[in-house]
Design brief:
69 residues; alpha+beta; three-stranded antiparallel sheet; 3 strands
Length: 69
């Protein structure tokens, strides 16, 4: 399935998607790799983590703190 950030109607839908994907893996590193398969990456800037769309690195939304655990 090829998802892009344009297919999500709002940020809450994207966050729900990320939580579902995070629940399927054991580590945050695996979660980041899984997001790359969907065309996203997580980048840290000055201590804050954001989801970016690939390949443009357009900032999409902040990463919820509960996804780090």
């Amino acid at each position: 399935m090829d998802l892009t950030h344009r297919q999500f109607k709002d940020m809450q839908t994207l966050i729900r998607f990320m939580k579902q994907e995070r629940a399927q893996v054991a580590s945050f590193a695996d979660f980041r790799a899984r997001l790359r398969n969907y065309g996203y990456c997580i980048r840290c800037n000055e201590g804050e983590h954001f989801v970016h769309a690939l390949p443009t690195l357009q900032k999409v939304c902040p990463v919820p703190q509960d996804l780090f655990g």
